[in-house]
Write a structure and sequence with these properties.
The protein is mainly alpha-helical. Helix content is 55%, strand content 6%. It folds into two domains: 1-88; 90-134. The chain has a two-stranded parallel sheet. The longest helix is centred in the C-terminal third of the chain and has 25 residues, at 109-133. It is globular, with a radius of gyration of 17 Å.
Amino acid sequence: MAEDMAGRLRQEVPGIDIVGAESPPYRTISDDEVAELTNRIQASGANVVWIGLGTPRQDYLVPRVAAFVDGVVVPVGAAFDFLAGRVGEAPRLLHGTGLEWLYRFSREPKRLWRRYLIGSPRFLAVAARYWWCR
């Protein structure tokens, strides 16, 4: 998928400089694999590293990579799926409303139900507790 997205970006954004694209295995990445990955990133000369593995996988990987890379490391969620043309974006009517998640949920309920019905309320509860207790 990373290669699909890079190819599409090269077509749509003339002059873009993409120095690497790869898709890691769908499992927890070992410390040795993170070390190898960060070595490849450093050797590539990348200034910005985009990580799109989905939540929570990318949320665990970003700080591990950022600790060893001399650039900015950005988690981008489903952006790669959108750019690669694998997943359709929400209708423009929903852009900027905060309801794009509802469109995605309607398209992939089996995959996203835990995230939106369990993970999001849990996050909101922790955030609210933090906000009230400061």
